[in-house]
Amino acid sequence: METVELKEQLKKQIVQFLNLSVKPEDIKDNEPLFGEGLGLDSIDSIELIVLLSREYGITIQDPKEGRKVLVDINTMVDYIEKNRTK
Amino acid sequence: MGIISSIGDSVGLNRNALKSGKCGISTLGLFPSKYSGELPCGEIKTSTESLCEKFQENREGITRTSLLARHAFEEAINDAGWDKSFITSPETAFVNATTVGGMCLTDELYRDANAATNGSLYLSSYDCGSVALYLQKKFRIGGIINTINTACSSSANAIMFGARLIKSGRAKRVIAGGVDSLSKFTLNGFHALHILSPEICRPFDLQRKGLNLGEGAAFLLLEKEEDIHDRKVFAEITGYGNTNDSFHPSSLSAEGNGPYLAMREALNVSQLKPADIDFINAHGTGTENNDAAESKAMIRLFEKQPAFASTKSNIGHTLGAAGGVEAVYSILGLLHQEAYANLHFENAIEGAGLVPVTQNMPMPINHIMSNSFGFGGNCTSLIFSKA
Amino acid sequence: MLYIHHTACISPQQSFGDINIEALHESVNNQLLAMEPVYAGIPPGLLRRMGKAVKMGVGAALSLLADQPIPAGILIGTANGGMEDCIKFLNQIIEYDEGMLAPGNFVQSTANAIASQLGLLNHNHAYNITHVHRGLAFENALIDAMMLTAERPEGPYLLGAVEEISTYNFNIDFLDGWFKKTPDSNLRLYNTDSNGSLAGEGAVMFLVNGNPQSALASVKSVQFLHSDDEAEVATAFGNFLNKHADEAIDWMISGENGDQRVGHFYTRCESMLAPGTGICRFKHMCGEFSTASAIGLWLACYMIQQQKLPGHMIKKAATRGFGKMVIYNNYKRYQHSFMLIGN
């Protein structure tokens, strides 16, 4: 899958999984997921780790380690491309 | 008082266990789960079948939660030597607390909720109210019956509600406390939140990795002073306070606002000063968030930190039963003028630097505080004083 | 004495916002689903996680709290709270065989999610409690509020009740025989001679304190009992009426629900009323659920305020006005409550 396609797919998955009111196409690739930007919180970070596991077969055991990956769409897609097993 | 926990099935046995530093936390034995043999829990090693046998109940619609509650309830009633007419009197209230209710029957609930069967025998046993209803029917308790669910502070709130019922004249006597049994539901829920420890919990320790779930039941019998006559008295409830932390659905504010305000409110009601508190039975779950926030709150409130310990190091976090179980432990400390050690502690939390009591020892205690802080930020503090 | 100053009710009828309960909306598939408003005032970040029960409860409460002092207590009665989220999490446990699970549903599934979300939104550190005793969850919250208004009259206290028809609750209660087995309608709820009622849902909120000035209505007394014996219930009701014999009751608001197995409790209590007392019913408007008695209380306030009631509620007309009311509700045969309401 092309990176551009993966980014689109990931944004749709995030919006659906976290039940966000924002449209997938309105999420910027480098917009911070936590704090300012999309404004996600600690429960969301755990949910995103579950999403990575279910959709891409990637296991992140420690949520703290996960936060290093879950910075923005770019870092997530980069990590998925390198580690996906699905 | 009456109690059942992973370190004993009576008040006396629990006290002996606390005095000998017994830890009831181990990997699951009876409970069927993927995590059996993996996650440490404060499991009561009495099967539901043998509880049914003991009470001559035929498993139809009866849950483990109800049976544990009955065990502790009966001990409390028998211990008090109440006349049978006391229980059926419309002036006798029963205030229970539970977060699990009949949801310990995870698989049955899944099938019934998804209408996958014609309905199991447990259809009316899933909700939290089912436990109090079971006991009300069994013992024909005649007065106000209630069930409270505020997550981890539930039974502390039940005791507080019971005390207020008596104070307002709505009841002459109250049986108050709570119960929770291990369930796949809570086990997986806490595991999903990454707050279960893969090891035995270490409240207030620098290396703490989370909490261990436990199960248990405990009830206190409350009466007004002038109604007791020559019956024995264990303690007086002199203070209570409930507040909301209002920070996040599943974690406490770093400053421990909710805990601080709850403790302060309890002190206000008791008209005691912080310096009057001789010992604190802390909430101390062993999670990074709770123990840090609770420490902060204690430092803010107490100029001189009172001795404190968390008995969750002995039995784990019994959720809805925690407030009740820890009330019994606090009253035992008060009665026998002794402190029970906070187990598995080595080094203090950085910054806070609070060191709990780590040895069992005699201790002069006039006023003891018991704290329970829960999901959704619900924080309750109770103060028991020498009678 | 507890005084009600403001009310809000989200129910299957037009009871919220632009209120019009004269027109009766019909049930669908034996269910009376709530007419939910557009939820204003809830930040999207929190709204996205909320199940229906929490949304209704928070939505109704926020409408009361605008322009009001922060409550000195939040007291909620709900038997099943976030049951829908509870079962969603349960489904995950089974589906993924206790594997890696998303925790959002678990956090929202606790019964005290409504009260704690309200505390969060309101930045409220005050007393926060959730009573969950099935058909008496609201009555216990009410007693708790009455104790608070006696202890600290200034308040104000936010008192409420919430319940939702989640697929799962419905399935469980349906299998247990509490809802009609064949297609039925609320329009003829009381004319049937079958078992069960119709499923309902709603959120009712009251802002209360111990101050009579400008109050809409007052709750003078609440009593409840556990019994399936008609004589016992009649004795309790008789004692309740006698305790307040100095106040002529104008209306009995009855929780009769179309279930033929419990109708006799209502008939018996109705027979004990003084001549001239009116009888009206409300479960055809909201359906049956554990905290439906809160709808009864909302309607009592409505009747006292408006000095009238919709014709479809009347079982027997009153000869007197709209001063004192007694609400009698029964839930699943065994739990009974009486409330005395005044102007």
Explain what you see.
The complex is a heterotrimer of chains A (86), B (387) and C (343). Helix content of chain A is 56%, strand content 0%. By secondary structure, chain A is mainly α. Chain A has a single domain (3-83), classed as ACP-like (Non-ribosomal Peptide Synthetase Peptidyl Carrier Protein, Chain A), CATH 1.10.1200. The mean pLDDT of chain A is 91. Chain B has 13 helices and 14 strands. Chain B has a five-stranded mixed sheet, sandwiched between helices. A five-stranded mixed sheet of chain B has the order 8-14-13-9-10. In chain B, helix 3 crosses helix 6. By secondary structure, chain C is of the alpha/beta class. Helices cover 32% and strands 20% of the residues of chain C. Chain C is built from eleven helices and eleven strands. Chain C has an eleven-stranded mixed sheet with strand order 3-2-4-5-1-6-11-10-7-8-9, sandwiched between helices. In chain C, helix 2 runs parallel beside helix 5 and helix 8 (230-243) packs parallel to helix 9. The termini of chain C are close together. The chains are: A mainly alpha (86), B alpha/beta (387), C alpha/beta (343). Chains in contact: A-B, A-C, B-C. The A-B interface holds A 41-43, 46, 50, 62-63 and B 192-194, 248-251.
Short description, anyone?
The complex is a heterotrimer of chains A (86), B (387) and C (343). Chain B is α/β, with parallel strands linked by helices.
How is this fold's topology laid out?
The complex is a heterotrimer of chains A (86), B (387) and C (343).
Chain A: H1 3-17, H2 42-56, H3 63-69, H4 73-83
Helix pairs in contact in A: 1-4
Chain B: E1 2-4, H1 11-19, E2 26-27, E3 40-41, H2 48-54, H3 64-80, H4 84-88, E4 92-97, H5 106-113, H6 129-139, E5 145-148, H7 154-167, E6 173-180, H8 184-192, E7 216-223, H9 225-228, E8 236-244, H10 257-270, E9 279-281, H11 288-301, E10 307-309, H12 312-315, H13 322-336, E11 338-339, E12 361-362, E13 367-373, E14 378-385
Parallel strand pairs in B: 4-5, 4-6, 9-10, 9-13
Antiparallel strand pairs in B: 1-7, 2-3, 6-7, 8-14, 11-12, 13-14
Helix pairs in contact in B: 3-6, 7-13, 10-11
Chain C: E1 2-10, H1 44-47, H2 52-65, E2 73-77, H3 83-95, H4 104-109, H5 113-121, E3 127-131, H6 137-151, E4 157-163, H7 167-175, E5 202-209, E6 217-226, H8 230-243, E7 251-254, H9 263-270, E8 278-281, H10 283-286, H11 293-306, E9 314-316, E10 325-331, E11 335-342
Parallel strand pairs in C: 2-3, 2-4, 7-8, 7-10
Antiparallel strand pairs in C: 1-5, 1-6, 4-5, 6-11, 8-9, 10-11
